[in-house]
Amino acid sequence: MNPIEEQLYRRLSAVIDPELGKSITDLGMVTAIQAVPRDQSTNTGSAEQTNAQPVYDVTIGIELTVPGCPLSQAITDSIKQAVASYPDATLVPHIEVGSMDSDKLHALVQRLKAERHENPFSKPGSKTRIFAIASGKGGVGKSSITANLAATFAALGYDTAAIDADIYGFSLPRLFGTSEHPVNLNGMLMPATAWGVKFMSIGIFAGSDKAILWRGPRLQRSLEQFLADVWWGAPDVLLLDLAPGTGDMAISVAQALPNAELVVVTTPQSSASDIAARSGLVALQVPMKVRGVVENMSWFEHRGERLEIFGSGGGQRVADQLTRALGYDVPLLAQLPLDPQIREIGETGRPAVLDEHGRLRDDDFAQSFKHLAQALMAAPSVAD
């Protein structure tokens, strides 16, 4: 390589593949760099042209992991920015895009799998905060809270992932508004992405109209596959939308992710809060820390008056009961309103905390989730 080509290679090492979270040079995606001075013999010799920087035509060859990669444009745009950052000459980029052959792709996947181990979130030194969103019964808005909390983390700048661990009642594809199928790289899956959140759900494969009839061992295997067969990179936050109750999946999460922290969702009425407390009491039998309680549907705003349609105090009752039973403070982290507009926005496939451009909204609902996310991250992690 000539000096310009060497400098460009170093700059390209800062271009990150959005799916794999690694440099395109580390991934072997850069196959050629050639910088050729442009013929300027037709210049008139004016002072402006004499003092101008030399111009080079730069050809860069890249091989994407799969043909027609949906992130091709994002990668090529980043390459152009890296080329434009060269200070000592004007570089005119020409990018030739191809795809890896099967042998090269297989070798890359094997290397990534070797780096990752089987479950990247349970290995020592993992910095990912894992929050399992649980409830005692269905219908309390647990999945909606998971989706909005994930979107909030992403909007705050966290690298965020989510797993739909409610196999029978999967909701995340609908709540995130996408039916995107994961890219399969020789047996390693790239998660779907929506609103800045990487996520995986059985609903992506089964379709929204399919019923899942699986018993315990297969449920556990599905979680293991979501953890081990998907390339998550190294997210800051992983959220799991658990099935209601204290069944097989809750036990599987505790076994596979001993560093997971439980967030219990309830509604205000005593019949719901009594059941919700049981989902937190599972921490007496499995190694999970209960981080706190979220009360949903706390009130309905009507002409300036807060109507407590489902009663009041359920979230605090759950927090107090778990604090007494577990022997450490389990706070009431948030109280969220019942608002038809929130439901309507959510049904369009956009988390209600975000505006149409994916930015965190300024209203009370979004700010409640912002404070919830900040409270969760401010608390010491299980690994600390």
Automatic annotation (TrEMBL):
According to its UniProt record, which protein family does this protein belong to?
Belongs to the Mrp/NBP35 ATP-binding proteins family.
Q: Subunit notes for this chain? A: Homodimer.
Q: Name one GO molecular function term.
A: ATP binding
Q: Where is the MIP18 family-like domain?
A: 5-34
Q: Which residues bind ATP?
A: G136, K137, G138, G139, V140, G141, K142, S143
What this chain does, per the record? Binds and transfers iron-sulfur (Fe-S) clusters to target apoproteins. Can hydrolyze ATP.
Keywords, comma-separated and alphabetical: ATP-binding, Hydrolase, Iron, Iron-sulfur, Metal-binding, Nucleotide-binding
Keyword tRNA-binding on this protein?
no
Q: Tell me the CDD domains matching this sequence.
A: Mrp_NBP35 (cd02037)
Entry's InterPro entries? FSCA_dom_sf (IPR034904), MIP18-like (IPR002744), Mrp/NBP35_ATP-bd (IPR019591), NUBPL-like (IPR044304), P-loop_NTPase (IPR027417), YlxH/NBP35 (IPR033756)
Protein name, as recorded: Iron-sulfur cluster carrier protein
The lineage's top-level taxon is Bacteria
GO biological process assignments: iron-sulfur cluster assembly
